[in-house]
Design brief:
The protein has 701 residues and is α+β, with helices and mostly antiparallel strands. The chain has helices at residues 10-14, 73-84, 96-115, 123-136, 138-144, 150-157, 162-173, 210-213, 218-234, 239-258, 263-268, 279-285, 291-297, 311-323, 326-341, 347-362, 370-394, 397-419, 426-437, 462-478, 526-542, 564-582, 597-618, 631-642, 649-658, 664-670, 676-682; strands spanning 16-17, 93-95, 182-188, 191-200, 276-277, 306-308, 440-444, 500-502, 507-511, 585-586, 589-590, 645-647. Belongs to the peptidase M13 family.
Length: 701
Amino acid sequence: MTRTPKIVLLTLAVSAALVGCGKNETPAKDATASTPAAADAATTYKLDESKLPAYNAFQASDLDSNLDACTAFGDYVNGKWLAANEIPGDRTSWGAFTILDERSVAVQHQLAEQVAQVKNPAGIEKIVGDLWATGMDEAKVNAQGIEPLKADLAAIDGLQDKAAIANYLRTSAAKGENVLFGFGAEADFKNSAVNMAYASQGGLGLPDKTFYTDASKADKLKAYQAHVAKVLELSGVAAADAAKQAEEVVKFETRLAKASKSSVELSRDVSLYYHPVSLAEADALTPNFSWTEFFKSQNVAAPEKFSLAIPAFHQEVSKALGDTDPSVWRAYLRFHTVDGASPYLADAFVQENYEFYGKTLNGQKEQKPRWKRVLGTIESDAGEAFGQLYVKVAFSPEAKAKMEELVKNLAASLKERIQGLSWMSEETKAKAIAKWETFTPKIGYPDKWRDWSGLQTNRDSYLGNVRAATAFNYQYNLAKIGKPVDKTEWGMTPQTVNAYYNPLQNEIVFPAAILQPPFFDAKADDALNYGGIGAVIGHEMTHGYDDQGSRFGPTGNFENWWTEADSKNFAGLTGKLVKQFDQYKVDGQAVNGHLTLGENIADLGGLATAYDALQKASAGKEDAKIDGFTRDQRFFFNWATVWRTKYTPENAKVRLATDPHAPAQFRAVGAPSNLPTFTAAFQCKPGTPMSRTGDSQVVIW
């Protein structure tokens, strides 16, 4: 299991995704249909449908007739399936999203093998083919051992003082290998039409600061220290010295953790990312780390302002440069250099990486096969390039047209819901509608593909190709600083089964891969499609009005467009939703209703909006029962099917601490239990678990 980078990228931090899976659990799309866009590849690719995993669409036979929809709706719809299906050994969760990911990965597998065989490849075919071929050449990777890192490790061994360490941090960052903090371009919160530079916290090998400070996670911290020692030993450090150095590395990271913000803090206060300062002001805050010199070293023109997010973290780094023995810095940098490269090195490094990040931390029972890991690398390093090939065989123009219709219908229903709010003043409603009017939907794939010319790859070294792509992507991002935002760009690849909302551009984005069952099926009835992709569309639209999205205005600028009274009313309603989710528990551990608030707001508003849109689309049509169930019942059945998921116990604990999405079993029931339409559809008695009434019922958007 490749470790997810701990550097926080602002785009992902402020953009609300539907499921928020890590790159090892990220889904994708069907392999039929025609070519929607021209890629820079002339080769014709063919797929063998018989080798692709089946869909996991809703079926009436899934329902457990021994249960009551009003008391145990999640188990009623998904219990039988969950009991009959185990999590595959190379996964940490299993359900609707990950099953589609298996299908996407299977499509990509067939494509990659064909791309790698192209004679005299150029452009994206060469990039994808080189990454695939070198990644799959296990014998060569093993023969090279740690040799590809020798120059880096020698440079680290030579660091003797704070000036040398600071210089190393700058030079490694220029290659996109900055372990200490995230740095890159994103739209200016106050002028979202222009990109500015942002620096954020980083530097930790564990998922969140709480893993270093909470007694309940002490076992993971202890295991992490053992992992650090093992990696150092694999890199050539004697066992006894590696153990001592590992202890110092963990102490150092604990220091950084204490100066960091938690996942909860970052997810529920997006303003933490925006702290504009001049270079002189930044230099004064961090006297041992010159930001003026950092910008020069990254070949970025000195800006009037940049965002030094989480300034206390950067101040602590500066202090550490001044008071921490260089030997500790050397051990820290050596470990992270090797650890970050481990997935692309010899088998011993790969295995150790899996043993901790996959098995110990997340409960993954077995290593992913090499081909899946290599595809994950291509997704990370050249995902949009691969996406150009993917959509040629895996996305239907008919699906895009249907999605455009659904988006239009959902938007109309959301507008009516906003206009009908009883708790919001007309003044704020007018501004909410103004924001609604500027929503930009993106469906399937980018209208303009990214230019990959300049990325040089070869068949010599897997790590060499990965590092070339890392540096290329980093410089591509830095080149945006100070320039107008390119609103045609996407933050997800077409082969990703997910969707997101970006408040800085007020856009909702639906990659091609999510347009398949159980989300979307051109052959299914409206009830299933509105309960699936319709609710996803509504979910992403509602993110524009969740507790963080609502802090951005129609143009994407960070601004307050609420009256004081409306803000107070909104806080009261969202507080009730926090309380609802706080009461859900996984193996005795409570869900964090505050951490998951944004997604829960989006689920509630999205599902309600999708239901309204279904009623409008079905007006005048007979409600002919299918398998004995009404249209409304099937709508809610498919909503629950989308959240049909199980997790390893270890992965569930990590998610409870870090994931702004509630566990899937509670997303299946949380939103519908607040809707009177659910109560009516299943004739539930007031007060049953799925029929919240009075003060326990939450109605927001």
